[in-house]
Design goal:
single chain, 394 residues, alpha+beta, six-stranded mixed sheet, four-stranded antiparallel sheet, globular, binds 2-deoxy-2-fluoro-alpha-D-galactopyranose
Length: 394
């Protein structure tokens, strides 16, 4: 079913047996061109919001009940505002995590009905969870007139993910979803949250996402381990250079002197992050100069680092990157997001996409036993209200 204002409003009315028109918010998934595992190291990222999104439809209730429904799972969950606890059922936790954070900031909200629907593939590394969290916080902000800024919403969503989903993520996914701008990537400094929109001019090339269909099972535990390893490296450097706060402030020379003698593994992890930050800054200037070829080469280098040094890739992701490496129509390719599954992002000449996918799909199936899905992503605006009904301050 196509998701739009009409289909979602109709679904909502059926689920909650009401004639009241809901407020509907669309919040997109994201791609990240380059700058992976840099966000929680106070570094830089280059994400963009895409044409796949999570939608929430909400109306107020007169009591303090929170009544939730997910169309994709045909499943309901009900609780009250004085009993916001984790369910471990996954999808409700992203919404309940937002309520929990709002309560911690003393935001005043009442009971509500909420329906969620999405066309972002789950577990594909396109940030379906951040999209749902951002849609929820944006909708509750409008419904209850909370006057949160988008930066505040990004932090609320990030902390909801930490506490209710157990992933100690950075701010990139939420920021990209909320701040996305059509046909632009966001050059974001994750320390200051200073950002700049850079036009994504690909000149006959497209962003092709190849989905391994490997659900990243290991991802949350390994993700949190990587984060701790980076923090360990920073702690060792800090013993000698107290001004250092995060890997963002660290140089390769510092790692050579203060980390390598203590642990080769931690060195390897930190070195990847320091290199990736530098790579991103150069990639950003490639993009501004319109040099997509140079940008593409850096994406391959990122994949190499993620696979060999940071070790967050998997056989299937490596297969997909290896198999496009020598294809002249592909400027760059790499795994994207947290890792251990999900998608690769590729910059591919538009007219070569069909042939590439037709050749790759059977080879991938034979090597892995899995189907290969693909999406040509377009870059779209960030979180928006899409319903026409007027709300207080909107
Ligand atoms: C996941 C996280 F949620 C992000 O914060 C980011 O760290 C990314 O992995 C890796 O760059 O998407």
């Amino acid at each position: 079913m196509e998701l739009n204002e009409k289909t979602i409003a109709t679904g909502f009315k059926n689920v909650f047996n009401t004639t009241e028109a809901p407020l509907i918010v669309r919040s997109p998934g994201r791609v990240n061109i380059i700058g992976e595992h840099t966000d929680y190291n106070d570094g830089f990222v280059l994400p963009a919001a895409i044409d796949k999104a999570a939608y929430v439809a909400v109306t107020k209730r007169a009591d303090n009940t929170v009544s939730l429904f997910a169309t994709d799972f045909n499943e309901a969950h009900e609780t009250t505002l004085d009993n916001i606890v984790k369910t471990n059922k996954h999808w409700p936790d992203y919404i309940l995590g937002i309520i929990d954070q709002l309560q911690k900031t003393n935001a005043v909200i009442g009971g509500f009905n909420l329906m969620v629907a999405a066309d972002i593939p789950i577990g594909a590394g396109l940030s379906s969870s951040a999209a749902l969290e951002c849609a929820t916080v944006f909708a509750l902000d409008a419904l209850f007139d909370l006057h949160l800024s988008k930066a505040e919403m990004a932090h609320i969503a990030q902390h909801a993910e930490h506490e209710f989903a157990g992933v100690k993520c950075g701010v990139m996914d939420m920021f990209a979803s909320l701040f996305g701008k059509k046909d632009h990537v966001i050059s974001l400094d994750c320390r200051s949250l200073f950002y700049e929109y850079v036009p994504l001019k690909l000149d006959g090339y497209k962003l092709l996402l190849l989905n391994t269909n490997v659900k990243h099972k290991l991802s949350s535990s390994e993700y949190n381990t990587r984060r701790q390893q980076c923090e360990q490296g920073v702690a060792w450097v800090k013993e000698r250079v107290p001004a250092v706060r995060a890997l963002r402030d660290v140089t390769v020379e510092m790692l050579d002197h203060y980390v390598m003698p203590k642990s080769m593994l931690i060195y390897q992890r930190c070195k990847y992050v320091v290199d990736e930050n530098n790579r991103l800054l150069q990639a950003c200037s490639d993009l501004k100069k319109g040099d997509v070829h140079a940008l593409g080469k850096k994406m391959f280098a990122t994949h190499e680092g993620l696979s060999k040094e940071y070790e967050v890739s998997c056989r299937e992701l490596d297969f997909l990157v290896d198999h496009v490496k020598d294809n002249k129509a592909v400027l760059g390719a790499r795994m994207m997001g947290g890792g251990f599954g999900g998608c690769t992002i590729n910059i591919v000449k538009e007219e070569a996409i069909k042939k590439l996918v037709e050749g790759l799909s059977p080879a991938y199936k034979e090597a892995t036993g899995l189907d290969l899905d693909y999406y040509v992503a377009s870059v779209e605006d960030g979180t928006r209200i899409i319903s026409k009904k007027e709300f207080a301050h909107v």
